[in-house]
Amino acid sequence: MVTRPLIEYGRTGQPLDIPVLDVHAHIGSFASTIAPALERQVEEMKRVGVRWQIVSSVEGIHGDIVWGNDQAAHAAHRYRGILFAYCHVSGQYPELMESELERCFADPVFRGIKVYQAGTPYDHPVYEPVWRFASTRHLPVLAHTWGGNLTGLDRVALQYPDVPFLMGHSGSGFAWEAYLEAARKAPNLYLDLTYSREHTNMIEHFVEAVGSSRIVWGSDAPTFSLSHQIGKILFARISDEDKRAILFYTSARLFGFQP
Amino acid sequence: MEICDAFFGVGAWFRRDRLLPWRTEELVALMDHFGIGSAVAHSNFTAGGGNAWHGNAILAEIVLRTPRLTPAFSYTPFPHRDSPRVDDLLTAMRQANSRMLFLFPHSAYPIRTVYGELLEACVAHRIPVGLNRENLTPAWIEELLRTWPDLRVLLVGCAYQEEIWVYPLLRRFEHLRLCVGHYFIPPDAPLRFLDEFPARRLVFGSGLPFFSPGGLIAHLMYAPIAQADREAIFSGNILQWMEEVRW
After folding, report:
1. Could you read off the pLDDT of A97-130 as tens digits, one per residue?
2. Is B167 on the interface with A (CB under 8 A)?
3. How far apart are CA B176 and CA B178, in angstroms?
4. A222–B219 C-beta distance less than 8 A
């Protein structure tokens, strides 16, 4: 039973004792930064009180798709029950899509599909096998988006209303209106708050506009700090009930997690 | 935990997004919500591209009514004979108890020629100078640090993957301090940073009203670092710099 207001956890640096699911995390390093070791990433989860993290491989996103999915699976097996994996597929490598989806989802550590804006719009026909697979298997899709540019994700969401699509980095570039407009049109589009910046009043406005049942939380760790990302929610001027929904209950419903 | 926000804008500005707060009372309410006791305030009007002299006047009026704010004036060194001079700025700063200067230059300006007189005065009076990385190149910042080795420089607005040039600058130039902003959010950042640099090189600055400070506060509170280091970052370092200003 949680009795303290959630903002107090952020003010004092105490680990959270509520269920928290991070639906947007990675393993690996981008070009201009070297991530700390995976055990440091998991240590930070424990320090903050994040119970579960669903990861995709940065190197996989950068083109080494098969190796990247292997690494995500390896991390999830190493930290079984704490880390889970996304299967990353890319419109730039359509020849790998179906085989990777079949291969990944034979392993139960994979819980969703990750796609990235790499040149092919999400509503390009090349992606259709992916959306069909997600629909058949009841899998959520986390799609990288940026600055209000959805590159067709909003149209795909309307075509596949049974697939939950997470709009990665919702509100990035302070382009909050485009994300809200899309979410209002397609009830299966969810706002993913993962974003390096924290525009004042934006989270509060999102909650007011579409409700916390349409908003999920992710950290982008290890690219960003997990504690920074969760602080945005803990300090937001919204109710604790909304904070708990964003940190767990909305995404738990989509990804099939139990508290 | 005392928090003094070193990167805090007040007043209206040109291209405001309508979600953003701008009235002083809104900002003070946010300070209370986040537990920020005081702030070194610069003018949003100037930061947003407005005339620095007018921005300073707006700022002076706001801080008079809001004792929790210490003004950080700004200055644009115009070349005309009838433009305000550096001495005029220093007089205005003394009168308003301004103990920091926030500059919003552009890398296109030749630094020694345009800013030389101003920055010499800042060195002489130990006035800390805040610089927003946004319109600056790393090479321009490096030239500034090399040219004025005694200038107290606070760099704000660095992004999270800019360690690649910020760390080498920090190693080479002891007089550079870094604002915990977007740059400072990779996991283990306080630990990795403090492995190499003392805590006095870091200064808390939220970026209000554009950016909300909750994430940064949590980032520092959850970091397994010494309490003394945390206090220095949250307030001690910037307060010390402002105390050391000499007129």
Report:
1. 999 999 999 999 999 999 999 999 999 999 999 9
2. no
3. 7
4. no
ipTM of the complex: 0.95
Q: Cβ–Cβ contacts within 10 Å for residue A183, how many?
A: 23
Q: Does B214 touch chain A (CB under 8 A)?
A: yes
CA angle, corner B187, sides to A217 and A56, nearest 5? 55
Chain B contact probe: residue of A55, A180, A235 with most B CBs at under 10 A: A235
Q: Which of B30, B185, B224 sits opposite A228 (nearest CB)?
A: B185
- Summary count for chain B: helices (H), strands (E): 11, 8
Measured at the CA of B208, the angle between CA B204 and CA B211, to 5 degrees, comes to 95
* Phi-psi group of B54: left, alpha or beta (phi > 0 → left; psi -120 to 50 → alpha; rest → beta): alpha
Torsion of CA A16, A21, A27, A29, to 10 degrees: -70
pLDDT, tens digit (0-9, with 9 covering 90-100), for A197-250: 999 999 999 999 999 999 999 999 998 899 999 999 999 999 999 999 999 999
Residue A49 one-letter amino acid: G
**CB of A75 within 8 A of CB of A27?**
yes
